[in-house]
Specification:
Shape: globular
Distance between the termini: 10 Å
Oligomer: single chain
Helix content: 25-40%
Mean pLDDT: 94
Order of helices and strands: EEEEHEEHH
Strand content: 25-35%
Number of helices: 3
Low-confidence stretches: none
Number of strands: 6
Length: about 110
């Protein structure tokens, strides 16, 4: 994903297994390696349907429940669906950037 960056922004021991993925310093994914889940930005109109379809899609941990979902990685959510949801999260953030910021980043 062009211009996406992986970050481990916290130094506290309890957060050492958390990684954020950003574009232009805006998060689109938070990965918890230890607890094997990720939070991804999601279109509000898709949140309820995804939660009804998969047991592994739940309200996001420490995020706005309207715009974010939690995906349990070892669950009923297929790998290709997880990849698609992460890509959609990235695209939501890119779309939210100003035109000038997208041009600056070559997006």
């Amino acid at each position: 994903m062009p211009q996406a960056k992986e970050n481990a922004p916290w130094t506290e021991p309890q957060y050492q297994n958390l990684i954020t993925f950003t574009v232009a310093d805006k998060w689109f994914c938070l990965l918890d390696i230890e607890n094997k889940f990720c939070d991804v930005k999601c279109s509000p109109e898709n949140v309820e349907e995804l939660q009804a379809t998969y047991k592994g899609v739940q309200p996001a941990w420490h995020m706005n429940k309207t715009h974010w979902i939690k995906i349990v990685l070892d669950s009923d959510v297929p790998e290709n669906e997880i990849e698609s949801l992460v890509k959609q999260a990235y695209e939501l953030i890119v779309k939210s950037l100003t035109k000038s910021k997208r041009q600056e980043l070559g997006l």
